[in-house]
Amino acid sequence: MLVQIAIDGPASAGKSTVAKRVTQELGFIYCDTGAMYRTATVLAKEKGLDYGDEAGILADLEQSKISFKPAHPGEDQPVFLNQEDVTLAIRTPEITNNVSQVSALPKIREELVRQQREIASGHDIVMDGRDIGTTVLPTAELKIFLVASAAERARRRYAENITKGIMTPLAELQTEIEQRDYKDSHRQVSPLTKADDAIEIDTTTMTIDEVVEKIVTLAKNRKK
To answer: How many other C-beta atoms are found inside a 10 Å radius of the C-beta of residue 124?
Structure first.
């Protein structure tokens, strides 16, 4: 029996970190959908397009290839736009602050959802994002919705940025996260919403190991 695991939740709730660890523990395939939307945003920047130019971004996206390579333990999964390594570029403040606008464009979502479903077809897979359980993989065997307080999520983002040499004040990060939450939950197309059959896990006071262990146990029960 194949198992699809959909992990959703707001920005910096730990989705990608947890998804990568769960993937390694279970030997599944991992698809970082958030990185795909960030890469589309980088594409718009590189082409000099307005972040709201749906037709322009779509035209270039259809001619481009977004791909991943396996990550070394403790490192971000390498992300490529065609042959260009954009792993660091997709995490810069400009991309972070504009990805919500790009990801809200209906045609961009349609194209990337098509690619995501293609990746998931016929595999045990872990996929994380904002609308995996509700839109991309609505029939997933296991749906997880990760949450955490805005203050804790800002602290996590701050610590992550420091290791990458990105110096953004903690208070500014919390404001950006709160604004991102509002944008993601109020957009017209595939807003951030907890699926009715999703299991909510509040990670505010949990360690990564605790969250991973909980999801792995749930997944193994589904796999039986």
So the answer is: 18
Question: Is the confidence at residue 164, as pLDDT, over 90?
Answer: no
Are 128 and 19 spatial neighbours (Cβ–Cβ below 8 Å)?
yes
The order of strands in the sheet holding 84-85 is 66-68, 79-81, 84-85
Question: Distance from CA of residue 176 to its chain's centroid?
Answer: 17
The residues, ordered by sequence, that sit 6+ positions from 168 with a Cβ below 8 Å of its Cβ are 93, 158, 161
> What confidence score (pLDDT) does residue 224 get?
66
- Mean of the per-residue pLDDT values for the chain? 92
Distance of CA 157 to the CA centre of its chain: 14
Distance of alpha carbon 51 from alpha carbon 42, whole angstroms: 10
- 188 φ/ψ angles, rounded to the nearest 5 degrees: -75, -35
Q: Tell me the C-alpha distance between 154 and 39, whole Å.
A: 22
Structure tokens belonging to residue 21: 């660890």
What average pLDDT score do residues 86-113 get? 94
73: which DSSP letter? T
Structural tokens at position 187: 């957009």
Calculate ∠ Cα 5-6-12, nearest 5°.
125
CB 145 within 8 A of CB 9: yes
Torsion sign over Cα 40, 41, 46, 52: positive
Cβ atoms within 10 Å, residue 128: 28
Decide if pLDDT at 67 tops 90.
no
CA distance 49 to 45: 6
